[in-house]
């Protein structure tokens, strides 16, 4: 097993006077195997990015652990941390334009890696490695090298960032909404690229997205998040073709269908933000059409309903007990 997230919790304090605590990630556990592509799916604010940042050690957990190759990442020595950041984990984020300095040629992003980790690498070797990395992500080095960010498209920039992330063949790539800003055809090309890298180098991918269709397309396993908690997870085929949690069902029903036109159905009023995080039971209970008393009182735990398919829902738990 490559990565093991154990009972991870991250609490932020929000608001000034009378502020409230946001349990952005609340008791989350999952694993990523070598060469596995796992989608982390959920609507805005469900805690996906926070999980990515915790794995990247950009945030410190409030409680729980993240084990990488069996070692607690918060206990890494300085040397282990340096290795973690270049050979083990890399990340690509949503907005490719934000990752480039508009005043620098795009190649600079590669030299930053060389300067930090291989300061002694000769010029020729560097050039060769950059060209090879660019070719691997389907770019023609002579078309992109020496250019400034405004001279390239979002798709080309995102490919360059993927090339940089994959330059050192990391074990895990965290792709946080990495294709969301690309147009539909470029998006599929970039997704295919991630799949090809996994097949070629065994790179695992944590694919963070709010788009169910993209998650289905690329991933072996899917984790559905709601307000900091996992409501359902398992093999992608099982989660999508036999969804169990009312939230997963609702999400799947909301995927727009090409044959159906938009129709006004009323807008659900926003819950008072501070109150949502205080809910003792299932966080989805206030929105769930099937909620019972117990759903508001006790947090359901994940149970394995069929092989490699877990759900956290009292509906299922009580019917099993009954
Ligand atoms: N630094 C912070 N301080 C306070 N609250 C935060 C902070 N970072 C995130 N949050 C809150 O934690 C919750 C989870 O945020 P997060 O960004 O992880 O969600 P997300 O699922 O990635 O959403 P999105 O898809 O919109 O990026 C949100 O309610 C957010 O407002």
Automatic annotation (TrEMBL):
PROSITE patterns: ABC_TRANSPORTER_1, ABC_TRANSPORTER_2. Gene3D superfamilies: P-loop containing nucleotide triphosphate hydrolases (3.40.50.300). One of its GO terms (molecular function) is ATP binding. Keywords: ATP-binding, Nucleotide-binding, Transport. SMART domains: AAA. It comes from Pyrococcus abyssi (strain GE5 / Orsay). InterPro entries: AAA+_ATPase, ABC_transporter-like_ATP-bd, ABC_transporter-like_CS, Oligopep_ABC_C, P-loop_NTPase. This is Oligopeptide transport atp-binding protein appf. SUPFAM superfamilies: P-loop containing nucleoside triphosphate hydrolases. Residues 3-252 form the ABC transporter domain. GO terms for biological process: peptide transport. It holds the Pfam family ABC_tran.
